[in-house]
Design brief:
With 390 residues, the protein is of the alpha/beta class. It is 38% helix and 13% strand. The protein is globular, with a radius of gyration of 22 Å.
């Protein structure tokens, strides 16, 4: 999480964020969750192959104690996966109530005072936002009863969490809680929300590089992005309908950062292409290539080439934990609904109706730290700096 500057630069006050705000202690956290496969966490970690076995063996007893509960799952929304550890119910309302029961039992059995739910499941097939079931709580609950196909599995988890009044974050690009009915319910129950789609690899670099190009008014003619990955995420995204959901999330970033409506001569004709290819030999070690065709003064062309060899889960796991800790903090601070200050972590940040999402990583970080300063009664930092020269 790093540090947060307080007061003037001359005061030299930059405590660690974990010491500045009252985050939950890692020693007090208990983990639980759902999966369509019934392997315990040690077995699942070995299967995933992200961490080396000698490292996993150091915490093997703790991992073996965590066994997933049966999951809400429907292959209509994730077509490339299937598993045996799946809930059964008379309708989607029944499944949602089973998830709520799981949450309540987990809290009771472990003596927990607070719970946070983070969706880390696979990318679901692309869905538009125009379903009548999304408009109100009543319409959504009627849709649960009627098994409305517009209600995907991730929405059932979102509904269960928000109905319980606990924080909910969506780490995938699915709609999930980003519909009017869930926003209304969150205001009623006091549940903080964050999402969508964790920003870890190629898109993280886009939100670092694109603001720099725009700040110097360097034109961008084309941005070609391709990825290869061989983990379960890659397998799911090999389905065109799931890829469409991810593509929309990844492609929206440049439109909002570069603002072609304000700088048409620089960005209006941008050709932005995103590709993801499933390549099993690569496993969790994702590789992203970017070719960026740019132009400067007098329209002279230039290029940027980026090759990012990264580890998908290694980049994602710490920010899942950050999100959980910050959402728990938000809940204790009486904050509910969309937590836009957590957009720092997401490709497709949730935002209030009528606003455009802020994608610039540096603005997002300023928003996050200013929110923490606000919580603790410290002055917000604008970086104006005139007081140093009076």
């Amino acid at each position: 999480m790093g540090t947060v500057r307080l007061g003037k630069r001359t005061e030299a006050r930059s405590p660690a964020i974990k010491d500045f705000v009252p985050l939950a202690s890692l020693d007090d956290i208990v983990f639980g969750g759902w999966d369509i496969f019934d392997e315990n966490c040690y077995e699942a970690a070995l299967t995933a192959g992200v961490l080396e076995k000698p490292l996993l063996d150091q915490i093997r007893p703790e991992l073996e104690q965590i066994r997933p509960w049966p999951a809400v799952f429907d292959r209509r929304y994730v077509k490339r996966l299937d598993g045996p550890n799946v809930k059964k119910g008379k309708n989607k309302r029944d499944l949602a109530e089973q998830v709520r029961t799981d949450i309540q039992r987990f809290a009771s059995e472990n003596g927990l005072s607070r719970v946070v739910l983070i969706w880390c499941g696979s990318t679901e097939t692309y869905m538009t936002t125009d379903s009548p079931a999304y408009e109100t709580i009543e319409a959504f609950e009627a849709g649960l009863e009627a098994n409305d196909p517009a209600i995907a599995s991730s929405m059932i988890y979102a509904y269960a969490a928000i109905k319980e009044g606990i924080p909910y974050a969506n780490s995938a690009p699915n709609l999930s809680a980003d519909i009017p009915a869930m926003l209304q319910l969150a205001q009623e129950t006091g549940a903080p929300l964050a999402g969508k789609d964790l920003k870890t690899g190629q898109t993280l670099l886009k939100t670092i590089i694109a603001p720099g190009l725009k700040s110097r008014l360097i034109g961008v003619e084309g941005w070609y992005s391709t990825n290869i990955l061989g983990n379960r995420d890659g397998e799911v995204l090999d389905d065109p309908e799931s890829f469409k959901t991810k593509e929309e999330s990844k492609k929206s970033v440049l439109d909002y950062i570069l603002q072609p409506n304000l700088y048409p001569e620089l960005y209006e004709k941008l050709c932005h292409v995103v590709r993801i290819n499933y390549y099993p030999p690569r496993g969790d070690n994702k590789e992203g290539w970017d070719n960026i065709d740019i132009f400067g003064w007098l329209n002279y062309p230039m290029q940027l080439k980026i090759n990012f060899l990264c580890r998908d889960s290694i980049l994602a796991a710490p920010i899942v934990l950050d999100t959980a800790l910050f959402l728990d903090l938000a809940k204790r601070a009486g904050m509910s609904g969309i937590q836009e200050w957590l957009s720092f972590y997401y490709k497709s940040p949730m935002h209030a109706p009528g606003l455009y999402p802020e994608h610039d990583l540096f603005i997002q970080l300023m928003k996050l730290k200013n929110t923490l300063r606000y919580m603790r009664g410290e002055d917000l930092i604008t970086h104006l700096g005139l007081e140093y020269y009076d």
